[in-house]
Amino acid sequence: MLPPHFPDPLQNLLQLTRDLRSPEGCPWDQGQNHKSVIPHLLEETYEVVDTIERNDDPHMREELGDLLFQVVFHCQLAEERGAFAWNDVVREVFEKLVRRHPHVYKNTSGIQNAEDVLTQWDDIKRQEKQGKRSANSILDEIPNSLPAILKSEKIQSKVSKQGFDWEHPLDLFTKLKEEISELEEAIGPSPEIKNKKIAYDDHIEEELGDIFFLLVNLARKLSLDPETTLRKANQKFERRFKIVEELLREKGEEMKGKPLAELDLYWAKAKERLRSS
């Protein structure tokens, strides 16, 4: 079998995907279904995000191609089932985007800024969904499969539009202090410690979950994306920790076994090195 050679690169990719799934194609691709490739879809999405945050255009181009292939692959699987095809997906998203941008394509007035656009988008989306599926709650529209932080943000964004929200971000601090006190009470004054950890307790889990939920809401109130904010905190910790490892290697020393007070000194040096650079 020769690789497809159409003038249109997209046609080449569509035909290649058919080839991979054909009886003469790739055994691995032949054995996949929508659910089995979900991990790859998620992985490719995060790899695109990673290249964007690194301002890495060459790798972004590559990773966007990998993500595009995931979309094409799902379309091929759906076409084989007789559900829909690539052109159906493209046509539907095109028509939806035209429909949800009347201020661009119908020259409707009243749009002054990005916030107006989002309000209009939600109104049009709500009208589109009327009659399609009955929902007992505005929260029923949120997919259960979303990552927890993203779903938490979606929940709080939706209820906020109904007026169920604190007036000011600082109002959340009173609630946060309350939740922290409840977590401290759940842990207790003298918890049993094994391997630097407390044994699992469902009440502690519940109280800590309340704090996570509140912090997501605080991020939203501060116009921050909680996922991005946490990812940046992870990256900052990684940078500092790697410098600590480097400082220890320079002295020919091992981290494991050192007292925390000594490691804190290395941590302070790592912070200083990052500031100076």
TrEMBL record:
MF terms in GO: nucleoside triphosphate diphosphatase activity
Keyword Hydrolase appears in the UniProt entry: yes
Lineage: superkingdom: Bacteria
Segments forming domain NTP pyrophosphohydrolase MazG-like: 32-104, 171-242
GO terms for biological process, alphabetical: dATP catabolic process; dGTP catabolic process; dTTP catabolic process; dUTP catabolic process; response to stress; TTP catabolic process; UTP catabolic process
Entry EC number(s): 3.6.1.9
InterPro entries tied to this protein: MazG-like_dom (IPR004518), NTP-PPase_MazG-like_C (IPR048011), NTP-PPase_MazG-like_N (IPR048015), NTP_PyrPHydrolase_MazG (IPR011551)
Keywords per UniProt: Hydrolase
PANTHER family assigned to the protein according to its UniProt record, in alphabetical order: NUCLEOSIDE TRIPHOSPHATE PYROPHOSPHOHYDROLASE
Record's protein name: Nucleoside triphosphate pyrophosphohydrolase
Organism: Leptospira ognonensis
